[in-house]
Amino acid sequence: MVPIVAGADMGFGTLTGCMKLVRNFVESGVAMIHIDDLAMGLKKFTNGDGRTIVPTSEYLTRLTTVRMTYDIMCVSDPRDHPYVLGATVDVTPFDRVVEEADREGKDYATVKAAWKAATRLMTFDEAVRAIATDEQYDDYLNSLAGRTVPLQERRVIAKDLLGQCVAFDWELSRTPLGQYMWQLSLKAVIDRCVLAAPLRELTWSRQDKPNKKDMHDFHTALRSVYPDRMFAFGFTGGYDFSKGGYSPDEVESFHSDIAKMGVV
To answer: Domains of the chain: which residue ranges?
Structure first.
C-alpha cells in the first residue's frame, strides 16, 4: 500500500485543534502530514506579498504538538514497550466500551474499572511470566538483558521458548483519544529520567505520597549513572510521613537528608 502524505494546512485551530486533526489523520491511515507556518484565518495563496506567518516560537510549538500526538497515537519507541499494558483475553476494545457507556450515561471510572478487571490487563513480560515456568522465564529475561527489545521481537523470543504465542493486545486497551495504557513503576520513571538527564540541568523528583524506599532508590539509581546529578524535589504540606515509613526523627531531618541525595 502506498503511504499517504496529507496536507494539514496550518493545523486548523489551537494546539488542541492540531491534536484532533492529527488523530483524525492517523485513524484514516495517513502516514505523514505537512503543516505550514501561516497564521490561522489569514492564509492566502499568493506569490510575494500577502502571506502572514506566525512567530517562530508558535510554529515550533505547533510542530511539537503534532509530533507529540503522533507519539501518543503510535507506540513507536521500543524503550516504552516494556511498560505498555495490553489485554490478555479477547474483549471488546476499551474505546468502544467507553463510547457505549457514554451513550447510556454510565460513570466513566466505574466502566473503566470493570473493563480492566475483566481484561487481565498486564505488560507483555507479565503475560509471558503468567504461562512460563521459572526456567523459561529466566531464559526469556536473559534474552532481553542489556538491550532495547521492541514488542515484536519479544513475541518471537517468547514463542521460541514457550512453543506458543503469548496472548497480548495493547490495541484493545487504547482510550477513545488513542492513548495506550501505561504501567507506572519506579523502574519506568528511572529509565526515562536517565535518558532525559543530559537534556536538563536538574531532575525534579515528586511524590504524591511519601515513600522512603522509592525516594532512596530513585536518587541512588540516577546518581549511579550521573554521580554529580542535582535534583529538585516537590511535596505537599499534606504529606503523612508516618505512612511513608519515616520515623519522627527522620521527619525532622528530612530536608537535610534529601540534600545528601543531591536535592538542592
So the answer is: 94-142, 183-263
